[in-house]
Amino acid sequence: MKMNKIKLIAAIIASGLFALNATYAQEAKNNPEPVVIKAAQKSSISVERVSPAIAKVHFFNAPINFIVPETISSLNEAVKELSKDENIKVVIFVSDMKGYFFNHFDTSQFPNFLSQMGADARPLWVELITNLSNAPFVSIASVRGRTQGGGNELTLAFDLRYASKEKAVFDQPEVAIGLFPGGGGTDMLARLAGRDRALEAFLSADDYDAELAEKYGWVTRAIPDAQLDGFVEKMASRLALFDKTALMTTKKQINGVVFPKEADRLNSYKEFTKSLAWPGLQQRMPLFGKMYQEIGLEKVESNMGFYVAEGNKQLQENAKDKK
Questions:
Q1: Strands 160-164 and 221-223: what pairing?
Q2: CB proximity list for 54: less than 8 A, separation 6 or greater
Q3: Fewer CB atoms inside 10 A, N or C side of the chain?
Q4: Which residues of the chain have pLDDT under 70?
Q5: What's the confidence (pLDDT) of residue 258?
Q6: Which of 17, 6, 10, 104 is nearest to 290 (CA)?
Q7: How far is CA 185 from CA 172, 204, 259, 275, 314, in A?
Q8: How far, in Å, CA of 43 to CA of 74, rounded?
Q9: How far, in Å, CA of 116 to CA of 113, rounded?
């Protein structure tokens, strides 16, 4: 990533996200479990060995599970290490943060995200999604809570996605803030849900509950919340009974038909970096930063679809007042 691009992004952040940083820091300070927060600062990702053939990856980043650069690097390392284990057949991905699965990127850290590079100078995010798609195990997302932006794009990369019927919510807010959603979600959801439904999801930037997401093909199944953990564990245990070669050859063949190629993800990521210079984003970032400060981080994040629309309404009203 060129230095002038980093400087441009830093300028955008400095002008628009100071309020988000202050609000985020206050939320973390007020969190009643400081010991857990301290552990999360070391790594937001931890790996549990459930059985010889099953592992569980936990995500926790108080207060609302923002993806930070460390999340991407730690998750990528976990995927690579688990891929080396010939005994592992299934990996379950869960959140330990109430109310959120994988949330969107911490936008105050865009320069750090863009500086993360993997092998062959690939963006580390692109490498992570490629490693997940090629991983010699079945990845299962157990989605309880909101997954938004880059978190939803990550969720789309898992092989199977089981969502809490009452508690899972999906949203891609990027278009509403003047940004291109370049984490690979546009490539994947169009294949899963079809062109028109993918357009609706990304262009509307609205919240989608688990039942509608299931209808669209966004998730594998919507499961009553009380049954979600048991269902996922039962599925993982069933798959772990089967021959690994049969599992992985079938996964590879199906992915070859429908999963986006790495070149597609690289193109999307390139468009994302371009969009960081869009005037529409620069217009909206100060407004949304102020919204976080005045309304509250948790309230905005837990009703993202509503507030991104309200922010744009306010922008239009401000423009009329200036005329």
A1: parallel
A2: 88, 89, 90, 91, 92, 236, 237, 240
A3: C
A4: 1-41, 323
A5: 92
A6: 17
A7: 9, 14, 11, 16, 28
A8: 7
A9: 5
